[in-house]
C-alpha cells in the first residue's frame, strides 16, 4: 500500500517473516519517525526504499486512523508540510491523471 500524507510518502507491506508486523518503508530520512516515534528504523541504501521499520499492524492502523481524523486541509497539495516535496507530488498527480484518462471505462 502506498500512503501519501502531508508529512511524507510511505510504502507499507506485510513482513515476510511475521504476519503480525508490517514493514513501513520510506525514501526520505526521518519520515518514518514522524508517525512511528518508537520505531527502530534501518537504513538500507541497497534497497529501493532506503528507510525501513517493522511496526505492528495495530500500530500502523491506529496511526493512520488518527492521521485521517486529523486532516486539516481542503486541498492535499496545499497541505504538504515540506513544500520542497510539492513538485514531486505534482509529477505523481500528473501520472495518475493520465491513468484516470487512459483507463476510463476500462
Describe the structure.
This protein has 106 residues and is of the alpha+beta class. The protein has two domains: 1-72, no CATH class; 73-106, no CATH class. The chain is built from four helices and five strands. It has helices spanning 31-35, 57-69, 76-79, 86-102, and strands at residues 2-5, 8-14, 21-26, 42-43, 51-56. Strands 1-2-3-5-4 form a five-stranded antiparallel sheet, with helices on one face. It is globular. The mean pLDDT is 96.
List its salient traits.
globular; 106 residues; alpha+beta; 2 domains; 5 strands; 5-stranded antiparallel sheet
Give a quick precis of the structure.
This protein has 106 residues and is of the alpha+beta class.
How many domains?
2
- Low-pLDDT stretches are none
Approximate strand percentage: 15-25%
Helical stretch tally: 4
Overall mean pLDDT stands at 96
- Please state the structural category: alpha+beta
Radius of gyration over alpha carbons? 15 Å
Total strands: 5
Alpha-carbon distance between the termini?
A: 22 Å
Identify the overall geometry.
globular
What does the largest sheet look like? 5 strands, antiparallel
- Along the chain, the helix and strand elements come as EEEHEEHHH
Amino acid at each position: 500500500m502506498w500512503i501519501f500524507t502531508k508529512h511524507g510518502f510511505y510504502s507499507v507491506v506485510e513482513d515476510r517473516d511475521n504476519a503480525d508486523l508490517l514493514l513501513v518503508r520510506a525514501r526520505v530520512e526521518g519520515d518514518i519517525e514522524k508517525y512511528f516515534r518508537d520505531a527502530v528504523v534501518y537504513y538500507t541504501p541497497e534497497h529501493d526504499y532506503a528507510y525501513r521499520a517493522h511496526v505492528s499492524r495495530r500500530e500502523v492502523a491506529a496511526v493512520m486512523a488518527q492521521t485521517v481524523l486529523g486532516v486539516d486541509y481542503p486541498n492535499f497539495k496545499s497541505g504538504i508540510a515540506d513544500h520542497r516535496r510539492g513538485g514531486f507530488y505534482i509529477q505523481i498527480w500528473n501520472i495518475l491523471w493520465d491513468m484516470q484518462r487512459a483507463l476510463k471505462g476500462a
